[in-house]
Design a protein that fits this description.
Number of helices: 12
CATH class of the largest domain: Alpha Beta
Distance between the termini: 15 Å
Order of helices and strands: HEHEHHEHEHEEEHEHEHEHEEHH
Structural class: alpha/beta
Oligomer: single chain
Helix content: 25-40%
Number of domains: 2
Shape: globular
Amino acid sequence: MSKHELMILENKKILFIAPSFFGYEHDIVAQLKAFGAHVDYFDERPFTSSVAKIFNRLNFKLFIKGDIENHFLKIYDMSIKNKYDFLFVISPETLEKKIIDKIKSTNNKMVSILYMWDSFRNKSNAKKVVSCFDRVFSFDPSDKISGIDIRFLALFYNNDFKLLESDKFNSTQYAVSFIGTVHSDRVKLAKKIMEQFQNRGLNTFCFYYCPSKLLFILKKIFTREFDYISFSEVSFNSMSKLEIKDVFINSNAIIDIQHPEQMGLTMRTIEMLGLNRKIITTNSDIQNYDFFNISNIAIVNRVAPIIPDGFIDSSYVQPDENIVNQYSIQSWLRTIFSEQ
């Protein structure tokens, strides 16, 4: 950041509302504070029980409406006291227009910013409140809403996924690895891809995560989504970022399977750019990004995910350092909070 860019956030007060998501919200808070801002963070989903999360996911908000309203009224009270300079919201599922308007009314100079790290297609509530914000960004280049200026901004890699000098001399243990949340056809595809390497006698690593045992059981009973995975194959405790990095540093390539209803690149994809690791992905839109290189990135079909011959054995081609830096968390926040 230049001196002028640092001054944008120096001593500014930021109200940050975002869903808890594997600790990325805390990485954002830490970086904003490193830029000199004062940050108050609140979870956008004011409940911790699995039942409440399922009600919210299924849009049965009537059962948790009281908890949601009380949560955001407390945030409004904080806004009256603190007179925030920025309201920064990520992928809202429960936040309502009337609350956003109340928060904004506490300081008529407040700049309100919305960032979507899920597609608007998958977040009906976000569509209802998008008009409340001064700036709107999405990780999905296909997101379009009539009358709304939606700026495309890819996700980021944080400092945990920045390649260190000591990492460069690490010998790999796995030909390919997959670590991710279970959804859609992910498990089916990941297993098909890993089988191709296992048939060659190569080591692979997989870690399938589900945030709720109850959710897993219900989907197992009532949907076909989890047909390709058993209860014993799933972990209900996530891995830490350092554990994930250790696996990836020990892998030649990482499998990335985006949600079929999204075009934007996953956080995992951007993290592999930071770690200089090959990617096997179902997202064909990756070829439109400035870091795309056929030596580093294999695009596979969701129906028949065949890995190109020689891909895993060839050397990684180092991207331009300036391009890699553009996807850091520092650069991401600079774009969001710039005065442009």
